[in-house]
Write a structure and sequence with these properties.
The chain is mainly beta. It has one helix at 2-18, and strands at residues 19-38, 46-63, 66-83, 86-108, 115-129, 137-151, 156-167, 180-197. It has one domain (20-197): Beta Barrel (Porin), CATH 2.40.160.20. It is elongated.
């Protein structure tokens, strides 16, 4: 019985060492495509939330090579009518609040060294236009991410993060001009930030 108790006590510190919490602050920008398309014209014009930028707060829990994270984010974007070689832009006309959950796996590195994580997540966003009142709409998006972490001090880590997000169009059918169809929206983004381990 005593040997069993000693064995259990020896195992507990191993889990405590590998289980860590991290608070991360990120700022990112992205390119966007899709969301709508003029199927009746030859130029295939598109309305879309263009050049989205986000401020993100993430809390993650590491257990060995696996990390589970939850986040909240604020995103703003231009409302753009884009065609070949030209665009009509309304600056920062669209905004969204969002929350996400993500699971990642450490592919390279270890604690105290540069790391590479890859993960998948689910993002829920509430989009609204500055042009109208009471026009908010919810969208659910899937996301894939690659994240590089470079230790700066014992507790602080510099973060470089790439994301690809796909979601249904933020527009409803009656908001688009005649001949425009809704399409899946794609965002390809890059974020920079810092993480604090506690």
């Amino acid at each position: 019985m005593r040997s069993l108790s000693v064995s259990l006590l020896l195992l507990l510190p191993l889990h405590a060492v590998t289980a860590q919490w991290r608070l991360t602050l990120l700022h990112g920008s992205a390119s966007a495509s899709g969301y709508s398309r003029d199927e009746g014209g030859t130029d295939h014009l598109a309305f879309l939330p263009d050049r989205p930028s986000s401020n993100v707060i993430v809390i993650g829990h590491d257990l060995g090579r696996t990390r589970i994270s939850v986040e909240t984010r604020r995103t703003s974007a231009d409302l753009t009518l884009r065609g070949p070689g030209t665009a009509i832009v309304t600056r920062r006309a669209m905004h969204a609040w969002g929350a996400a959950i993500e699971g990642t796996r450490r592919l390279v590195g270890a604690a105290g060294r540069p790391t590479l994580h890859a993960g998948l997540g689910l993002l829920v966003e509430r989009w609204a236009f500055d042009l109208e009142a009471n026009d908010a709409r919810w969208r659910v998006a899937g996301r894939g991410a690659i994240e590089v972490g470079v230790p700066v001090t014992e507790r602080w880590t510099g973060i470089v993060r790439g994301e690809v997000t796909v979601s249904p169009s933020v527009f409803s059918a009656d908001e688009l001009p005649e001949g425009y169809l809704r399409r899946m929206g794609w965002r390809r983004g890059l974020g920079l930030g810092a993480g604090w381990r506690f």
